[in-house]
Write a structure and sequence with these properties.
Belongs to the short-chain dehydrogenases/reductases (SDR) family. InterPro entries: NAD(P)-bd_dom_sf, Sc_DH/Rdtase_CS, SDR_fam. This is SDR family oxidoreductase. By secondary structure, this protein is an alpha/beta fold. It has one domain: NAD(P)-binding Rossmann-like Domain (Rossmann fold). It is 43% helix and 17% strand. It has a seven-stranded parallel sheet, sandwiched between helices. α1 links the parallel β1 and β2. The longest helix has 22 residues.
Length: 249
């Protein structure tokens, strides 16, 4: 029961690796029982097993955010084990979605990105709300690319801008249920999903931050833990950039 999230049960999507894994680990370290969800079956099983071996309370479910039936099934299974106290909407298509000029962007790729990053976030939230206790919280993971308009990444940027807008609208609707929902906008972080990003883009970020240097997962997780905790019980509908001061909100 110790820690900022002691006694809480938190769902994290996209939890097999990258930022999602670090969100799950940080929540567990702060006392939460964590439900890890991801489409990457093998990596999810390995990550969940690794955290379980450290003594954390972990369960895992394979989920496909592009498949409404998959989302419904997973949250039905989660609900069979009881209510939840928080949700981190982290899962998104990020790798392989950029590089093309907007004039050459593939419309089918655009649709896939929107299906997962926007519709998937909405549908996961819709499925989770009936399981959330009063006074609990949701954190949506956006991106600071939506604040400064990163080039050659249009579908991803647009999808994360939509996540920010949805967060604000959802906050108005969920407030009557005493459920808080906020978004964070991380900057370019050193995780598996950003290994494809050209070195010059990493350099642009690292030199352009008020707090110069590379951003690590541990630089982001504290904001999520705080937003899930009772310390932020009167904060909702907000966007918190977590990028070392590369761009301000």
């Amino acid at each position: 029961m110790n820690g900022l999230l002691g006694g809480k049960r938190i769902v994290v999507t996209g939890a097999a690796r990258g930022l999602g894994y670090h969100f799950a680990k940080s929540c567990a370290e702060q006392g939460a029982a964590v439900v890890m969800c991801d489409i990457l079956n093998g990596e999810l099983a390995e990550s969940a097993h690794g955290l379980s071996k450290q003594g954390f309370a972990i369960e895992s479910h394979v989920i496909d955010l592009a498949d409404p039936h998959s989302i419904e099934q997973v949250f039905c299974a989660i609900g069979e084990q009881g209510q939840i106290d928080g949700l981190v909407n982290n899962a998104a298509m990020a790798t392989g979605v950029g590089g093309k000029n907007m004039l050459d962007y593939d419309p089918d790729l655009w649709d896939r990105v929107m299906s997962v990053n926007v519709k998937g976030t909405w549908m996961v939230t819709r499925a989770a709300v009936p399981l959330l206790r009063e006074g609990t919280a949701i954190v949506n993971v956006a991106s600071d690319t939506a604040l400064w308009g990163a080039p050659r990444l249009m579908a991803y940027v647009a999808s994360k801008g939509a996540v920010i807008a949805m967060t604000r609208s959802m906050a108005r609707e969920l407030g009557e249920k005493r459920i808080r929902i906020n978004a964070i906008a991380p900057g370019l972080t050193r995780v598996e999903a950003t290994e494809y990003v050209p070195a010059e883009r990493h350099q642009l970020y690292e030199n352009g931050r008020a707090l110069t240097g590379a951003q690590q997962p541990e630089d982001v997780t504290g904001s999520v833990v705080w937003l899930l905790s009772d310390l932020s019980r009167f904060v909702t509908g907000q966007l918190i950039p977590v990028n070392g001061g590369f761009v301000f909100n």
